[in-house]
Amino acid sequence: MAQNRGNRRLAILQPFSGYCLYFSLDDMPRTQAELDEEYQRCHYSVTCHTEDEAVVHCLRALCHFAEIAVKPQIAWGGTKRQDWIAAGHQITLRFTSPHHRDRFIREATRLLPAGCWSETGRSENDPARRQR
């Protein structure tokens, strides 16, 4: 259900627990062109190698943490198990700014054991692509 409050469009979710959740529809892309722009904004990438599938999930979670400007699923799209295997145990994560990418690398280095993953590439012009 959507509701207008002032000049903001809000969506209201009322789960079975009885609590109401409000979130702004104004911050969400409304057209296909706006959604495509979200993918284009994620053009700072880092490619990571790991032999451990659990580490892939950790890297995705850290990407989710570091990328705050778009839906995080856009940033880690294309990193499913079959993608990781097909790419020789590598995943490419994308960010909207070098700052977000650097934050990801800093946190991955701090939190994950040395040697369980490595950075194998980096690009300033590697936009995210739709996965569906």
Give a concise summary:
This protein is an alpha+beta fold. The protein contains five helices and six strands; from the N terminus they run E-E-E-H-E-H-H-H-E-H-E.
Q: Share of helix among residues?
A: 25-40%
| Fraction of residues in β-strands | 15-25%
Outline: globular
Q: Can you tell me the number of structural domains?
A: 2
Report the count of strand segments: 6
Rg over CA atoms, rounded to whole Å, is: 17 Å
Strand order of the largest sheet: 1-2-3
Q: Catalogue the unreliable spans.
A: 1-7, 10-14
Ends distance? 26 Å
Average the pLDDT over all residues and give the rounded result.
Answer: 84
Structural class: alpha+beta
Tally of separate helices:
5
What is the string of SSEs from the N terminus onward?
A: EEEHEHHHEHE
Largest sheet: 3 strands, antiparallel
What does this structure look like?
By secondary structure, the chain is of the alpha+beta class. The chain has 2 domains: 2-29, no CATH class; 34-123. Helices cover 36% and strands 24% of the residues. It is built from 5 helices and 6 strands, in the order βββαβαααβαβ. The strands form 2 sheets. It has a 3-stranded antiparallel beta sheet with strand order 1-2-3, with no helix packed on it. A 3-stranded antiparallel beta sheet has the order 5-4-6. Helix 2 packs across helix 5. The radius of gyration is 17 Å and the shape is globular. Mean pLDDT is 84; it is low at 1-7 and 10-14.
